[in-house]
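Before the break, one more example. Copy the sequence into your notebook; we will annotate it together after we see the structure.
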Amino acid sequence: MNVLRLCAAPLAALTLLASASAFARDPSEKITVLQDEMLKNVPGQKALMVEVDYKPGQSSIAHKHEGSTMAYVLSGEITSQVKGQPEKTYKPGEFWYEPAGSEHLVSKNASATQPAKLLVFMVLAPDQKVLIPLEH
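Here is what the structure looks like once it is written out:
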């Protein structure tokens, strides 16, 4: 079972990287899976933690997540807007929450000259999509 678990985590990471990168405006958007674990106390749900590195001026496409999402700015400044809320620029140590299914309209590095880094934590079912592009 340990061998299966060791193989499953890298496969899940590759799947996430392939799907998230395919939807990025900038093909160099860097997403690193830090943890992908089934929750023993919440059957049928997993916790996913990723780090998103934004180059200066870089942004993600408008999207939504099927799972509940929490984001924490590690460095730089990130401008974010969830539908129904005003656009806001977050600094290191600041964070926001997106209920499952929320439309994330803006997610970008607020600086044209400095990189930014975001830590994202999600709770979702293993068969739910991490990122769904919004059609406009």
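The chain has one domain: 2-133. Residues 1 and 7 are 10 Å apart (CA to CA). Try to locate both features in your own notes.
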